[in-house]
Amino acid sequence: MTVSDREPNLSDHAVATEDSTLPLADGDMYVRQDGPRDAPVLLLIHGSAASTRSWDALVPLLTESHRVIRIDQLGYGRSAEPADGSYAIPDQARRVGLALDRLGVRHAVVVGHSSGGMVATALTDQRPELVSALVLINTGPRLDAVIAQGSAIDPSQWEQLTDEQLRQAASAAFGEGFEIPREFLDEMRGMTFHAFVMATQAAGDYLEQQALPDRLTPLGKPLLVIFGEQDRRLRSSSAALYRVVPGARVELLPGSGHTPIIEDPQRTAELLLAFAAIHDAQPD
Question: 14, 17, 117, 282 - which has most CB atoms within 10 Å?
Fold first, then answer.
């Protein structure tokens, strides 16, 4: 593991942000950690065409009580593209589990945004001992929850897209009138078209094989579902489908779109922290 900040002193309660690159068999994975290393772990998994930076507004609201770990899935952000070419959700989940092993994490409340919620679900299925509880934020429960979008991006123009074209392509990821952060556009621009298409296809394949509520029900993990009520990418009414999961809690955020972690980090953090306080596993 290479670390661009200082190595953590485990006796410290408050530890500076730490950036790491974990060499995995499929490619190097970028990891960012914030908060006290002796606190319960929150693992944050980003969605498609995003990265660890999509959590920037939320993380400062979480670090007083938690060790917050963010990863760039392979093919995103500062991680390598997968050497084996696979963007399949189970493969991404397997890599996340290996990263947690490298970091010495034995239990975490796992939080996934959008397609990151599918990776969180697959991780729970593969490594149930790692996952204390699960939070899905605007993660589509099944394929028919998706709202049809407009014209597709011409792959030949991907690297030449203007800021305005990127904003148009990303507009459905936010509520009407929300100003899309520059950082989000930069992350989209930094992703290859191949990675974008493969990741999108992988998410669709995962839902087509089995709806998320059907996957989650036998796992028996505490579940919180948060949905922006003004989501323009997914039908927010579809959040109710998760209620079939025993004990699931579903919360709608009025005024937020598909990305409440950026649009309304305060209310998102309040829901997340209240849930985590009940289900956190204390570090060994």
Answer: 117
User: Is-contact 166 189, C-beta < 8 A?
Assistant: yes
Collapse the DSSP code of 24 into the 3-class scheme (helix H, G, I; strand E, B; otherwise coil) and give the result: strand
Structural domains in the chain (count): 1
pLDDT of residue 281: 72
| φ/ψ (deg, to 5) at 194 | -60, -45
Residue 109: exposure state from Cβ atoms within 10 A (0-12, 13-18, ≥19): buried
- 187: nearest Cα among 29, 57, 86, 47: 47
- H/E segment holding residue 279: helix 265-279
190, 77 contact by CB (below 8 A): yes
Q: Which contacts qualify for 159-163: CB closer than 8 Å, 24 or more apart?
A: 159/193, 161/189
- What are the residues whose beta carbons fall under 8 Å from the beta carbon of 156, sequence distance 6 or more? none
Q: Which of 140, 192, 149 is nearest to 168 (CA)?
A: 149
Asked if residue 68 lies in contact with residue 33, where contact means CB atoms within 8 angstroms, the answer is yes
pTM: 0.92
**Confidence at residue 183, expressed as pLDDT on a 0 to 100 scale:** 84
Q: What is the mean pLDDT of the chain?
A: 90
Tokens of 212: 């998320």
Q: Is residue 177 part of a domain?
A: yes
Place of tokens 């919180």: 224
- Cα dihedral sign, 87-91-97-99: negative
The reply to whether 273 falls in a domain is: yes
pLDDT of residue 1 exceeding 60:
no
Determine the structural domain holding residue 230 and report its residue range.
Answer: 2-279
* Stronger pLDDT, 149 or 22, i.e. the higher one: 22
CA distance 266 to 263: 9
Say which residue the tokens 């963010």 belong to.
Answer: 70
CATH number (domain holding residue 35): 3.40.50.1820
Inside any domain, residue 117? yes
Over residues 137-157, the mean pLDDT reads 83
Residue with tokens 């579809």: 238
